[in-house]
Amino acid sequence: MFDKALIEAAHKACENSHAPYSKASRGAAVLDSDGRIYSGCTVELANYSGTVHAEQVAIASAIASGAKKLVRLALYPADYPCGICRQFMREFNPEFVVVYQQDGEIRTVTMDELYPNVFGRENLQLPPTL
Ligand code: ZN
User: CA–CA separation, 14 vs 28, rounded Å?
Assistant: First the structure.
């Protein structure tokens, strides 16, 4: 039910991309466990290294808005997140599900499928309070 709205939000966000150099406009939208949707778009800088990907913007928007558990993410146009974004997503939920539309059908892929054997917080020697 949320997947179609999520894809539509990603599409709408894509229209606001700032991608004058690569022309690779992307939109993303994330769903939290309370059913709220947050969106983001590609924001490029001339030096490229400061570019922020749509997934990162959407997740940061959700975190800034107080979202506690992010559960699904859609990208527009349909694509898989890059490695940096996979790491970014995994930070907030190792069980994130990516939603995309292909050949008119809504499909999903899990973080385990996208990013197996990942480095995460469990690899750090953190005290239990962090
Ligand atoms: Zn990315």
Answer: 7
